[in-house]
Every structure is written in structure tokens, then in C-alpha cells.
Amino acid sequence: MRVTLTYYFFSLILLVNFASRAQNNQIKVYTLEDGLPQSQIHAMAQDYKGYLWLGTQGGGLAKFDGERFEVYNESNGLSSNYINSLLTLGDTLYIGTNIGLTVKTKYRFNTIDLPHVLKVISIRDQILVLTKKGVYEVLENFQTKMISLPETIGDAIIKDIIFHDSYYWIATNGGLWRTSSLKDTDESVKLVEQGQFVALSMHNDNVYASTFDDGTLVFSSKRQDDVLIREPLRINTSAIINNEQLWILSENDGTSIIDLETNSELFYLNSSNGLPVSNVKQVLQDRESNVWLATSGGGLVKYFQNSFKHYSSQTGLKGDQIYAVHHSNDAIWIATSDKGIMRLDDNGIHDVVIPDDFSDVKIKAIRSDQSNNLWLGSEGKGIMFKGTISLDSTPTKRSVKTKTPLFNSIEVTKIWNSDNKFPFDRIRDIEMVNNTIYAASYDQGIVQFTYDAQSDNFNLINTFNRSKGIEDLELNQIAVDNNNRLWYVSQQGHIGYILKNRVTHLGNVLQLNVPIHSILFYRNTLFLGTAGEGIWWSSDTDFNTFRKLQGTKDVSSENIYQLIVDDQGFLWAGTERGVDKLQINNDNEIIDAFFFGRNDGFLGTETCLNAVDKDDKGRLWFGTLYGLSEYEPYETDQNLKKPIIYLEDLKVAYNSIDSVDLVDWTNSDKVWQLSSEQKQVSFTYKSIDLNHADGIAYRYKLNDDEWSPWTSNDTQEFSALNYGEHKFIVQSRNHRWLESDPISFSFFIESPLHKKPWFIALVIGIIVLILVVVVIQYIKRLKHKSARDKKQLELENHLLSLEQKALRLQMNPHFIFNVLNGIKAMAPSKPEKMNDTVNSFASLLRETLVNSREETISLDQEIKTLKHYIEVEQLMSVEGFDYQIDVNSELDAEEILIPPMLIQPFVENAIRHGILKGPRKGHLAIQFEAINETLKVRISDNGIGIYQSQQQKTKTDHQSMALKVTKERLESIAGKDALNIEEIKDAGGSTIGTSINFELPLETDF
User: What is the DSSP string of 367-432?
Assistant: First the structure.
């Protein structure tokens, strides 16, 4: 076998360049202080949910969600705290330890007794456990069997196995083998290379076989010559990352990253350039493209690429706290906490020479004029000019000169402060308006001046302070708008501007008692950054009305220290937490927001007041308390992946349900059945973001309810749920507000027996049946009672009928007695009249007897009876009287029915107590009138009147029993108050008779 040796060395120039230039790649280390149970990590795996599992040497097992570590050890059921290998398949975690294999399912650990486990792998649907004493296969129900390898391999310790190009490649401590199967009868087994092999990787047509102390061999099916990557040595393992790189991990040299195309080293990571230790045990690339390194003694290392480069004292800066940043003349000028300034360009970081009396103060402002000359504002030594002039002109005065001219120009510096009658020593900010320079002090106002470097002509134009109209002199920043107005903002929240040497002070335009830190003009909008109240904006002509910058998303903090707009139109806001990149629409509403903090590569974290600038390549430079951060857009889809949410736990009555496969039941048609007592249900759910665990938010809804508000709470409990079917739906979003697909879980709470539909129907049926029986019995009783009442009523009616007949017959004896007395009186003297009276009386008596047997008789028959009665009374009367009977009806008198013997008593009363006692010849009038359904009866006489008649009756103590009974009959027929008796008066008011009126229901015989 021909082997091509490959060696890689870094030149001194590359090493220097690496140390001096910041990198986009970032390293973050997690140690015991972050929650790791042990710093020696020998195994890593990421499950399908995104959790990172770590196996330590002595600290047991740790689960990492990007924010905290959850530790499992022997007290939780782990067979050993010394873990060498991890493998995740679905909800199952295979843990290889020093004393065997532990399998973790949802809530329990299952221990399988095996020899010391070196590695657990999944290959061709088989789970293989590589131990110091052979290879075992894990079967169903966590049973194992030992695999008999080909005899030629012997008792060698198997370190790794892969399947590539129809062959199993087996790395052992005695050599590298290749075989077509893992059976002891396989005759195709072949020793590929002798040596102590520890790890295998494959990519496309290549197999990468790493030895412990002889480098890494690259075997290719398309190339005759194999390649030997000689370094590093003492290799622990290797892995393919990004499908472009081979990461080789060693005991002493850290990690070497090899380009898979050229097999050349791209770079390395060890303790000299960021790793806590150089002994790296395992490498893993997660779903967010981060690379994780497990070290022995140095904890967990996160390595990732981002859009920021960071510069600090470790990369060449004098100090970490950045006071001012300015881009000019293809360089970035930086003022640090170590005083003085530095220049950063393509050749690195350079110290800038400035006069000694200016180098011992803090530089708080850096600006450049139209000629790229620098202006520096200090905290105590005034303002300094640093620039060049042409040698064609000879300056008259100089404070400092360089001794050696550069071509046809000379570099000069100039300082102005109170020593040479400059009004301010403490300069907060500097701005240029054409050739005029404005310098804002901390608390004394703004000075306006010009300076011609060529002629060394300094001209102090004006000083703007409280007497000139600036009411708050504690200024934080000045800025120039498109109309050359110089604006200022103050510590008390005031703003104003200077135009044509006149101050226009707008005052506290926000109506808030907070400092305004920053001011920015973009197009026609003025933005203000405040301390604690966020960002405000105005698009008015005079910027008098301001509104708070808001939208569908918010800034990460309300404390704004920096404002700048990039070339793409994004508004960037620096805060104490990091920086926010804000996308704003034409209505100045935030439609998207991207936060960058330490986890995103913005290592400076807290930004410094107004220490921000943009260079001519569109790169943003942020000064922070912990260095200088450069933002250079980096194409990645890492932050464009929407999160995935999983149900982690289901609890019923506060007890976890282990029998439910939540993955299988999520978003399925299955419905989990619960008893009627199981009305308390809680769900735990999770989305894993190893970069921004604190940026995950959740919302949920039950059935068709509205979504809940977004919250960081990952557990939701429901108590006293209604019976019946329910669907729980939950969704997550990440720190970029990308939303996951919702997931659902359906469950059904069984109704108790008394609420089951069939039971309710049965109870209702029984109740209805009982009600039916009760109703039937009640109806029977009612019918029985009705029949009994009917018989009783019939009997009572019969008795009443008999009583009425008796009453009707009761009237006859009284009348007969009177008639017989009259006939007796006529017998001696008037026999002829007596004869007529007897005949009339006989007819009357016969009709009365006949009519008394009937309930009703015709009106015609009643009139005939009345005539016979009246004729009898005429014959018996001494004075005599006449009578008149009228019927006014469309019906024939024979068709109208009335009760018998009802009118006769009233006629008798009118004759005997009215006409016969009157002073005049008597007249009796009887009228019948049928109107609608009523028969009106009127009986009138011209007697003495009812009242005089009643007085005479009282005196004679004579009562008419017939009249009383007749009144009672009338009331029973026509109702109470049916009878109306009144006296008839003449014009003078004298009584001339009596009128009896009553109405009867009109009855006919048809």
C-alpha cells in the first residue's frame, strides 16, 4: 500500500495574524459554575427534541437545554457515574458505562450487565455495544446477545465500526479490518492496515481511520494511493462536520480541522487559542450548526460562527472599554479606557502617537472634517486637531510637528483648552457643519469655531449656553440634519437646535423626566434614544410631536445608548444587553426585530454611549464596555429555522402517565380516555434552542378557545375540566419570533354514571314512565271522581228541579187562596161574575199545573198564562184596570223560550201592591223585546210606587214569598243584580208608578 504523508505547520506570520485579528468564530465554555456535574466529559449525543446529553467521568449524566443542566446519577437509577458513550434513538438513550449498559426510557433506567463499554453505535438497524470483551447486540426488551466476529480478528478490542461501500470497517487495537458481514463464518474478512486504530469516519468515497499515535489514514475507493494525515497524534476520536471538514480530536493537541477536499488543515483549536484544555474527547454538530466539544477537565465547549468580530485587549487593544469609534480614511479610530487612541485597518491594530499632555486623558469624541483631519474631544484637556498640511505653505505656528515630512505634506497637531482661552476643557461630542466645527461640553454649552490648518487660523465664532437659550446644559450628543441645523439632546430630556447662530430650544418634547442619550436623523425622521423609555420618533417639519417606536415586536431593552442605520435601512439600537436590529416600515412601525447578545457573538454585551459608526463598506462598529464589535453580515439560515415543539410529559391527577407514547399520540386521531374522576390534566412541552433558550415562548388553547398570551411557562395545568372530548393545542416561537407548527393532543373525560347519556335517558324514561303511571292513575281518579260528582250533580239538579217545581207550586196556593176568597165574596151578590171568574181561574190553574212540569215554555204560552191571570185579577178587582202586552221581536213568540211562572209574581206584585192601591184607574203594561242574545222584560204600572208600597208592607207585616222566590230564580238565571226596580216620576217629580226591568238569556227552540 502506498501512503502519501501530509504535514501541516503554521508559519509565524499566520500565527501573528491569527492573534492580532479577531475572528467570526466564537468559543463559549460551560464549566461546573454553569451547572455541569463534572468537567471531564467523554460522551455527547443530541436527541430528536434537541436536548444535548453529556456523559461525564464521575458526575453521571447531564441533559442541557441551552440554559441549564439537569443531572442524573446513580441515585436516579444510573448503573455508573462513569460514562464512555451515548446513543439516542427516539425517546431511548443508550448509556455505555464502565460497568455495563444503561438504557434510559421516558422515566426509568434499565441496567444491562455487560463488560466495560467503549462505544454504543447504531448500524444497519442494529444497536451494537462495543466492550473491552467483545461486541453485543441489543435485542427487544433490552435483551443482549454476543456477536461472534470472524475468527481472524481474534480477541482484539473493537474501538469502532462503520458500514461503507458494502463493507463493515472495524477499528481494533490490533489493526483495521474490512468484512462483508459480522458473522464468524465470513471468509471475506481482510486486514486493511495494522496499528492501534481508535476511530472511523466516512464521507463520500473516503474512509477516515484514525490511529492512536500514527495519525489518520484516508482510504478512497477512487484513488490507489492512500493518504496519511500525520498530525495530530494521540487521537481520541474523529468526526465529519458540515460535510466539509474532518475534526480530529487528540489528547494533547486539541482539535485539528481538516479540509475534506484537500486533506489539508484549515485551522486548529487548543489551549493556546481558546480551548480550556487540549484534551478533547468528542465533537458533535447540533441542529443549529453549532459545534460542541467535550473536553477532559475543561468542561463543555461551544464553537460557532456569527456575524460579529470582536476586538479586545486580548487582540491588541489597549483597553476594553470603548469611549469613541469613528471611521475615516479607510481606518477605524478607537478611543479606549486606557486613554489615547488606536487605529484599526487591514494591517491590524496600531497605536496612534499624540502629544504627551493629551495622551493621559480619556478621549470621548472622535470626528473628521472634509479633509479627513481628525478632531478629538477629551475629558479635561479640551479639543485636539490631528491632520496634515501641504508643504507648499509654511505654517506660522505649530504646537507639535513630526520631524520627517511624508512626501509633500506634513502631519501637525493642535490643542485648544482653557490654557489658550478655549471655553471648554471637557468635550462630550463634536460635529461638523460644512467648514464650521461645533463642540459640546458636558455641562457648559456648545462652542462654534473654524480652523484653517494650512494658515493655522483659529476663529472662535460663538458660545451657546443658558444665556443664549440652551436651558439644559448637560448635553449627551449633537447631530446635524439635512437643513444644516445642529441639534442637541440633554440629560434632562430636552432637545433643541442651532441655526444661523440662533438657538431654538424645544424643551421636554417627550413630556418624560428621562435623559435622552442619542439622536439620529434618517431621511426625514428624527429618532431619539432614551434612558428607560425606549426609542421615540418624529417626522414633523419642526419635530415638535414625537411618538414611541413600537410595532409587532419590541426592542430587547428600553435603555438606548446608541442609534445607527445600516446600508439596508435597518435601525440598530445599542443597549445594556446587546444590540437590536429593527426593521421599520414607512409608518415607522417595527415589523421585525433581531436581538444580538453574547450568545450571538456580540461579546461586548453592554454598549457605550454613542460609540458607534459605519464604515464605507457598510460594516457597523459598536463600542462596548468589553471591547469593540464589528458587524459584518454573514449568510446563514441558522436563525431562519422555525422551532419544533414536543410534548414532554402528561400528568393526570398530578401523576405522570408513563404508558403514553407522546410522540405517537401527538397530532394523531387517537383520543386518550380518562375516567370521570380524572378531571385534572397537565401538559409539559418544550422547544429546544441551544443558542437562545431564554428566547423561547409558548402559547396554548383548549378546544376552540382563543390562544393564550405568549409566555415562557412550559407547563399548563387544567383543573375541573368538563366531561367529554377535549383537544389541547400548543405552539412555540423562538427569539426571532419564528413560530413552530402547532401540536395537539386529544383526550376524553368519561362522564360519571349519573351523567352518561344512556343513564340520563334511562332515568328520564323511568321518570316519564312513573309520570305516565301517575297521570293515568290520576286521570282514573279524576274520571271516577268526575263520574261520582256527575251523579251527585245530577242528583242535586234533580233535587233543585224538584225544589223549583215545588217553589213554582208554592206560588199557586197563595194565589188560589186569594181567588177562592174572591169567588166566595161574589157568590151572594154577583153570580154571573163569579161564573166568569171560575172559568178563567180554571184555565189559569190548568196552565200553571202544565207549565210547572217544564223547564222552559214558549213566550207565547207564558203570555197566555199571564192573560188568564190578569183577567182573573180584573174580575176580582173592585175598581178595575186595563192592561197591555207587547212583543217586539223578529222571532215568533212561539220560538222564544223562557222559564215558566217567572213573570207572574212581578205582575201580581204590580197589580196588588201598585195598581189596586193607587188613586187612579189602574194600567198595566208588559213589554218583551228580543235584542241580539237577550230578552228584555219590562213590567210597568201606574200605582202608588215601590217605596210607598214597601212602607205599607212593613206596617201590615205582609211579605210576598212568591216575589222573593222569583227574585232568587231570576238571579240564578241572569246573574246577580239582574233585576232593576225603579219608580216612574212625572215632570213635577211625583211618583206615578213603578217599572220592573230585567234581562234573560235569549233561548229558542231551534
Answer: EE-TT--EEEEEBSS-EEEEEEEETTS--S--SEE-SS-BTTEEEEEEEESGGGT-S-SBEEEEEE
Same-domain pairing of 668 and 606: no
Rounded to whole angstroms, how far apart are CA atoms 338 and 360? 9
Instruction: Summarize the chain as % helix, strand, coil (round to 5).
Output: 20, 45, 40
Name residue, grid cell 453549532. Answer: 290
Q: Are 973 and 966 in contact (CB under 8 A)?
A: no
Task: Give the CB-side neighbour count of residue 563, counting CA atoms within 13 A.
Answer: 26
Residue 401 lies in a domain: yes
Same domain, yes or no: 411 and 329: yes
Q: Are residues 497 and 582 in the same domain?
A: yes
- 629 and 648 both lie in a single domain: no
Report how far residue 27's alpha carbon sits from residue 31's, in angstroms, rounded to the nearest whole number. 13
Task: Specify if 564 maps to a domain.
Answer: yes
- Domain-located, residue 359: yes
551 and 675 together in one domain: no
DSSP line for 938-990:
EEEE-SS-HHHHHHHHHHHT---HHHHHHHHHHHHHH-TT--EEEEEE-TTS-
pLDDT in tens, 87-119: 999 889 999 999 999 999 877 899 999 999 999
User: Does 6 score more than 80 pLDDT?
Assistant: no
CA 1006 to chain centre: 82
> Hey, is 527 helix, strand or coil?
strand
Work out the burial of residue 370: count CB atoms within 10 Å of its CB; fewer than 13 is exposed, 13-18 middle, 19 or more buried: exposed
**Region of 122 on the Ramachandran plot (φ > 0 left; ψ -120 to 50 alpha; else beta):** beta
Whole-Å CA distances, 306 to 521, 597, 630, 937: 29, 11, 11, 119
Question: What pTM was computed for the model?
Answer: 0.63
Residue 15 scores a pLDDT above 60: no
Whether residue 652 sits in one domain with residue 604: no
Model confidence band, residue 909 (pLDDT cutoffs 50, 70, 90): confident
Nearest to 538 by CA among 553, 520, 556: 520
Specify the 3-state DSSP secondary structure of 32. Answer: helix
Q: How many CB atoms lie within 10 A of CB 926?
A: 23
Residues 455 and 505 in one domain: yes
Higher model confidence: residue 908 or residue 635?
908
Q: Residue 952 is part of which domain span? A: 795-1004
What digits encode the pLDDT tens for the residues 233-250?
999 999 999 889 999 999
DSSP string, 685-728: EEE--SS-GGG-EEEEEETTPPPPPPBS--EEEE-SPPSEEEEE
State mean pLDDT over 159-174.
94
pLDDT at 689: 92
Q: Are 55 and 42 in contact (CB under 8 A)?
A: yes
Q: Find where cell 204590580 sits.
A: 910
806 vs 880, higher pLDDT = 880
**Cα(3)–Cα(933) distance, integer angstroms:** 135
Inform me whether the pLDDT recorded for 960 exceeds 80. no
**Do the domain assignments include residue 198?**
no
Average pLDDT over residues 343-358: 89
- Say whether pLDDT at 667 is over 90: yes
Any residues with CB less than 8 A from the CB of 91 and at least 6 apart, and which?
Answer: 47, 105, 106, 661, 663
The residue whose grid cell reads 490511529 is: 211
Predicted pLDDT at 686: 95
Average pLDDT over residues 948-968: 64
Which pLDDT score, from 0 to 100, does residue 241 have?
93
Average pLDDT score over residue span 152-164: 91
pLDDT tens for 870-890 read 888 887 777 788 999 999 988
Burial of 932 (0-12, 13-18, 19+ CB in 10 A): exposed
**Cβ neighbours for 623, distance < 8 A, ≥ 6 positions apart:** 322, 323, 324, 325, 334, 604, 607, 608, 611, 612
Number of H helices and E strands in the chain, helices first, is 9, 74
Cell digits of residue 819: 181567588
Same structural domain for residues 472 and 443? Answer: yes
Does the structure show a pLDDT above 50 at 403? no
